[in-house]
Design brief:
Blueprint lengths: L2 H5 L1 E6 L2 E4 H14 L3 H10 L6 H27 L1 H6 L5 E7 L8 E7 L17 H14 L2 E7 L1 H7 L1 H14 L7 E5 L10 E4 L7 H24 L5 H4 L5 H10 L15
Parallel strand pairs: 3-6, 6-7
Antiparallel strand pairs: 1-2, 3-4, 4-5
Helix pairs in contact: 2-4, 3-4, 6-9, 7-8
């Protein structure tokens, strides 16, 4: 090895081999990009624009894809704020949605969410279109940034007593009543809630069109999923942690084998027991 070759090596162990100064620089650049904010990444892309190293070119390409994805998400969220912008002159707007109308077991859960006008929350969407991990992340952000959040529930016995539609309306009214501030307008996912004095705007597929309704959808979904996981700890034979009370093949088989649990909806399982 020549002196110049020896000088180009940093005697640092890395994955069982020596790391060259070039490797050191590439590793440093990668860390620099990884720890940077989006605005900082834009500046780094400009700084390294003429750098021909393959590793740097890949980092710049990744950064540009992230930037394009963010711009797309910002545009999508602007569309999701269409109803909020339309009615913001009225004052507080409340998004309302429910989760759990179809399951064989567990409650129906409704949520009412009032978001601030400048909430800046990205990735709000119909909860069914999001991964469980993303829902959990957004749940925490929504609770942190929301002006107010209300939760309402109707259990299996109440569902059997008054039917699922009326139980859903009841849960929605509970959610509204639990808000710490009174909204001037309700943005509802498809329904008009009876016996509510606040003006309402029903929006078909609202959880995919309104940020406020999407936020309510996410909070309701996470709340109910967590509850069903707690039920699973007490009633593991039904698989509530995975099926969330919905009529999966495994759930129906368990229902036939073990019979109904205290949280099953009697009016929903007549074909299985």
């Amino acid at each position: 090895m020549t002196i110049s070759e020896a000088e180009s090596l940093a005697v640092l162990p890395w994955n069982g081999r020596l790391r060259s100064k070039k490797d050191e620089n590439d590793h440093r650049d990668k860390n620099e990009f990884a720890s940077a904010s989006l605005e900082e990444k834009k500046a780094l892309c400009q700084l390294y624009a003429e750098d021909e190293r393959s590793g740097v070119r890949k980092l710049i390409e990744k950064c540009r894809k992230e930037e394009a994805a963010l711009e797309k998400e910002l545009l999508r969220m602007e569309h999701m704020m269409e109803y909020e912008h339309k009615y913001e002159h009225l004052g507080y707007l409340c998004g309302i949605d429910e989760v759990g109308r179809g399951p064989l077991a567990g409650p129906v859960v409704a949520c009412a969410v009032i978001l601030p006008k400048d909430h800046g929350i990205l990735y709000l969407n119909d909860s069914k279109k999001l991964t469980a991990k993303k829902r959990e992340e957004l749940y925490e952000v929504i609770l942190e940034k929301a002006v107010s959040v209300g939760i309402g529930m109707a259990g299996p016995a109440r569902i059997d007593e008054i039917n699922i539609l009326q139980a859903t309306y009841e849960a929605m009214r509970q959610a509204i009543e639990k808000l710490s501030v009174r909204p001037q307008l309700l943005l509802n996912d498809a329904v008009t809630i009876p016996a509510v004095e606040i003006p309402q705007v029903p929006i078909v597929k609202g959880d995919a069109k309104s940020a406020s309704i999407a936020a309510a959808s996410i909070v309701a979904k996470v709340t109910r999923d967590r509850l069903m996981e707690e039920y699973d700890a007490a009633l593991p034979e039904y698989g509530f942690a995975s099926n969330k009370g919905y009529g999966s093949a495994e759930h129906i088989e368990a229902l036939k084998k073990y019979g109904p649990s205290p949280i099953h909806r009697a009016s929903f399982i007549t074909h299985f027991v």
